[in-house]
Amino acid sequence: MGRDADRPYDIVLFGATGFTGGLTAEYLARHVPAGCRWALAGRDQARLAAVRDRLAGSAPGCAELPLLVADSADPASLAALAAATRVVISTVGPYVLYGEPLVAACAQAGTDYVDLTGEPEFVDAMYTRHHATAVGSGARLVHACGFDSMPHDLGVYLAVGRLPSDGPIRVDGLLRARGSVSGGTLASALLAFSRRRQTAHAGRERRALDPRPAGRRIRTPLGRLRRLRPESGLQGWAVPLPTIDPQIVGRSAAALERYGPDFSYTHSAVVRRLPVALAALAGVAVLFVLAQLGPVRRWLTRRLPGGQGPGPEQRAKNWFSVRFVGEGGGRRVVAEVSGGDPGYGETAKMLAESALCLAFDELPPTAGQVTTAVAMGDALTARLIAAGLRLAVEPS
Asked: What pLDDT was estimated at residue 1?
């Protein structure tokens, strides 16, 4: 049902007037294939028209791009949006506040859905509330299709594909990056820090419903501060990263037998000097404490309002590289995923290519809440390589 070609649109971008939504619109304007029927959606017709005018300045074919008015507070408008397209891209966050109505509409309509959330509470709650409906309708609900968590999900997918699947597999993910923060990202992070009880509750509810793979063990421990091993090819210290990425990797591992009967993944940031590592841990701890205080959290959010983010010159200086050291069956491989500005430029690329992949590529049959590796693995990897990201794996 979600693949019906008789719907008016192939792809609709919801949230096109936001910072990352605007970058995603620009990427689509340059890269949609001939004949792709796509549209911009949001709650403000005038602001959508301004985005369209900006796109038309460099891509004249966008001058007549359809504009759809829809609002997260108006379920009927979201139901109409979902019924009109084969794939929806959502860039409207924080998702835990504004994201569920569109997920529900897509699950009900059999419409494929992608977003760039990094919010574990949201992902777990959407599984609990809408996975079964999406399985029944044929919709594929694919969260975390940006820097959270595509490089990590596909990087591990590449690494385990070169290791024997009949024994234990261990993968160590090591992130190096230079990036910037937008208002939307800051707001989502602070809100997530302030909702630790709700996040824990959503996780427990999901675990009660989500079947564990029979006869297999999947682990994603937080890990500890440690000196890097020589086989990583890097120097310095590994700092544990409490992000959504291990959660997504673990869900791919649970769904795909190629990850072996006993799979473990650790996720860390790389810093060269121990004082820097300790300062980073202290900074996260301080931000976590401040996020618990409502007035302080709102003050921090006002310092960088939603819709604002780094300019082109700053984004051009940003980069990321994630190295994955995988071991299993007496073999070791090193995979690497790298690219430019992680939070915005490359995130817009990953998000748009995910939607294009769902809309136009031959993919394995899946439905419900699925990860990028499960829904699109090889096809999406090929797309991202063609789009300029580096995804490679070599024996170590």
From this structure: 40
Question: 219: which strand partners?
Answer: 264
Look over the chain and give the mean of its residue pLDDT values, rounded to a whole number.
90
Using alpha carbons, select from 323, 328, 394 the residue that is nearest to residue 155. 323
Measured distance CA(389)–CA(147) in Å, rounded: 12
With a CB cutoff of 8 Å and minimum separation 6, the contacts of 240 are: 222, 223, 224, 225, 266, 267, 268
Instruction: Judge if pTM exceeds 0.90.
Output: yes
Q: In whole angstroms, give the CA distance from residue 92 to residue 101.
A: 11
For 147, residues 6+ apart whose C-beta sits below 8 A from its C-beta are: 116, 320, 342, 343, 346, 347, 350
Three state DSSP letters for 232-244: HCCCCEEEECCCC
Question: Which DSSP helix (H) or strand (E) runs through 104?
Answer: helix 100-109
- Contact assessment for residue 113 and residue 141, using Cβ atoms and an 8 Å cutoff: yes
C-alpha 343: how far from chain center = 10
Strand partners, 332: 327
Q: Where are the alpha helices (DSSP H) in 138-260?
A: 150-160, 183-194, 196-209, 245-255
Distance CA 24, CA 204 (A): 34
Label residue 166 exposed, middle or buried (CB < 10 Å: 0-12, 13-18, 19+).
Answer: exposed
Q: What is the DSSP letter of 359?
A: H
**CA 252/CA 236 separation, integer angstroms:** 29
Residue 345 CB contacts under 8 Å (≥ 6 apart), including other chains:
23, 315, 318
User: For residue 149, is the peptide bond before it cis, meaning its omega torsion is within 30 degrees of 0?
Assistant: yes
Specify burial of residue 33 (Cβ count, 10 A radius: 0-12, 13-18, 19+): exposed
The CA distances from residue 279 to 255, 272, 296, in Å, are 37, 12, 21
Residue with tokens 């693995």: 377
Q: Is 69 helix (H, G, I), strand (E, B) or coil?
A: strand
Is the Cα torsion angle 229, 233, 236, 241 positive or negative in sign?
negative
CA 198 – CA 364 distance, rounded (Å)? 34
Express each pLDDT in 305-360 by its tens digit. 555 677 888 888 999 999 999 999 999 999 999 999 998 899 999 999 999 999 99
d(CA 293, CA 300): 11
